Amino acid sequence: MSDNPLFKRTIHKHEVPSRYLPEENRSIRIYLPPGYQPWMSYPVVYCQDGEEFFNFGRIATHAQRLILEEDWEPFIIVGVDVNIKLRSAEYTPDGSRYSVYTRFFAEELIPWVESQYSVRDMPEHRLLAGDSLGGAVSVSLALTYPHLFNRIVSLSGAFYDVYIEQIQQASSLERLSLWMIVGLQEAEYATDRGTFDFVALNREAAKRLEDKGAKVRYQERDGEHKWGFWQQVLPEALGAFLGPAPLKLD
């Protein structure tokens, strides 16, 4: 089976050029589904913390199994890498690199991917996914670029006050659909900004989003702020938008 191109799993790595980022490029990795054909079009998942989603979340392995064994429509995954030392600066709205990172993501990364691969270019076929700060910045991107993004997976989002303020300042969010989860063992998690109750942060964010009209599938389960928890729930999270029986979020 492994020799058959219809079952091949392909991952490409690229350096995407940037006029905004000081280092002038960003590393990404792209999963192509089995049987990928450039003349077809595919839904696409854009992941913050791309290296971790691929290595620790095993998102490409999940996707391969779901497409081949559970008959999901094939989809593409784009993992956007981040320098861990610059992560807070890029992902947090009051961070020193937030504006250049989000501009890169929306104005350079998306057009580059769409020029190189057969991904669909409509918001309903783009899914933003992130863990912790990555989940929160995914919401932030959707608020800043509503014409590009309206579907989000947030795994234990780090919804600090700066993100809540963004949600509060937004007008109607009826276009947004979110799948959110947080672990019940995340009630006292240490971050570079202090120790936070992530359960409380996520409850607050979900409520504020729903108050603005967003469709939110919010869950709390036993789990820690670790990839061991997020890896287990990734298939369900993806299935909310990409599976054969998606949740009624729309």
UniProtKB/TrEMBL annotation:
It comes from the Bacteria. The keyword Cytoplasm does not apply. Signal peptide: none annotated. It holds the Pfam family Esterase. The keyword Hydrolase applies. GO terms for molecular function: hydrolase activity. InterPro entries: AB_hydrolase_fold, Esterase-like, Mycobacterial_A85_antigen. This is Alpha/beta hydrolase. The lineage of its organism: Bacteria, Bacillati, Bacillota, Bacilli, Bacillales.
